[in-house]
Design brief:
The chain is mainly α. 70% of the residues lie in helices and 0% in strands.
């Protein structure tokens, strides 16, 4: 589905494709939601992340809102945690509609983390932003002298927007040209 999404993005049939995906995934998304349930089968835990990604990518409003709310809770509620199973899906999909506060919150979380897996996950998520200004700022992070990012992370910063659709690829290409 992700491959189809990339192929059809920017075409005249993209809106129809998104509508089709929303109709298919909405019942599953409504059933699974964004909350991990104690002692649930592993298949449902795994399926929840897939449902979130598909639903948000197709523009299902409840998915985008729920993901943004989870990120907002992480930003504002002390000791709030997002399940490790869902961090990638929640971070990325929340940033599709997030403001600069949420974007910079995650960017700072990544820069302050010593956990390489967490840093990698957040770098990938930051590339999901649909805000050109924020994406340009993120790409600038990779070329600023200093040791804020490791060398391999700088490559990931460049890949992240390109991996998340037409807008990210266009921003990356313009950034490289400039």
């Amino acid at each position: 589905m992700t491959l189809l999404n990339r192929w059809l993005s920017g075409t005249t049939t993209y809106a129809n494709y998104q509508s089709f995906v929303r109709k298919i995934v909405e019942p599953l998304y409504k059933r699974l939601g964004v909350e991990v349930v104690a002692n649930e089968p592993k298949l449902e835990r795994y399926g929840r992340s897939i449902a979130i990604n598909l639903a948000c990518q197709a523009g299902l409003e409840s998915c985008l809102t729920d993901s943004a709310e989870k990120l907002h809770q992480l930003m504002t509620v002390k000791d709030f945690k997002i399940s490790p199973d869902l961090q990638s899906a929640i971070y990325c999909n929340a940033l599709r509609t997030a403001d600069s506060d949420a974007f910079f919150f995650l960017q700072n979380k990544m820069l302050n983390s010593e956990d390489q897996a967490e840093r990698t996950l957040i770098i990938a998520a930051l590339g999901c932003s649909k805000d050109e200004t924020l994406l340009k700022s993120f790409l600038n992070l990779a070329i600023i002298p200093g040791d804020a990012l490791r060398l391999q992370e700088k490559f990931r910063v460049f890949a992240a927007p390109a991996n998340n659709g037409e807008l990210g690829l266009r921003v990356l290409m313009n950034f490289v040209e400039n």
